Amino acid sequence: MKEFLDFLSRGKFRIPICDNCHTKIWPPSNICNNCYSKRIRMSKLDRKGRLIEHSESFIGENKNLGLVEMSGIRIIGVLSEGGLTPGSVVKLKKCGLDKNNSPYYEFSSA
Ligand SMILES: [Zn+2]
């Protein structure tokens, strides 16, 4: 979804919300996955979330990855500090596009 990536490339996290039924559309799409409306608006989310699980990735760079639930949506991101355990409150510290134009998210403790 172009609008989503445009915001993300500027470090802003906005997700599409259906104007018709108010569903958060995640993963981002141009069409509501609940009522199929195309009336979508980009909306800010609370940047605080909760760590659900984490794992260390040894593929490529050594990164501590976590699955975070934030306002009902789930995002996989990099944990910028150690010592976070499932249930920890975290916040989205940074987001953007990496050199391959893939979204990245970075979380730290809140
Ligand atoms: Zn809808």
Radius of gyration: 15 Å
**Unreliable residue stretches:** none
Please give the largest β-sheet.
Answer: 5 strands, mixed, barrel
Q: Work out the number of β strands.
A: 7
Which descriptors would you attach to this protein?
110 residues, mainly beta, OB fold (Dihydrolipoamide Acetyltransferase, E2P), 2 domains, 5-stranded mixed beta barrel, two-stranded antiparallel ribbon, 1 helix, 7 strands, binds zinc ion
Concise synopsis of the structure shown:
It is built from one helix and seven strands; from the N terminus they run αβββββββ. By secondary structure, it is mainly beta.
Q: What is the topology?
A:
Elements: H1 2-9, E1 14-18, E2 40-44, E3 48-57, E4 63-70, E5 73-79, E6 89-97, E7 103-109
Parallel strand pairs: 5-7
Antiparallel strand pairs: 1-2, 3-4, 3-6, 4-5, 6-7
The structure holds zinc ion.
Structure description:
With 110 residues, the protein is mostly beta strands. The protein has 2 domains: 2-44, no CATH class; 48-109, Beta Barrel (OB fold (Dihydrolipoamide Acetyltransferase, E2P)), CATH 2.40.50. The chain is built from 1 helix and 7 strands, in the order H-E-E-E-E-E-E-E. The protein has a 5-stranded mixed barrel. A two-stranded antiparallel ribbon has the order 1-2. The radius of gyration is 15 Å and the shape is globular. 20% of the residues are buried. The model has no long low-confidence stretch (mean pLDDT 93).
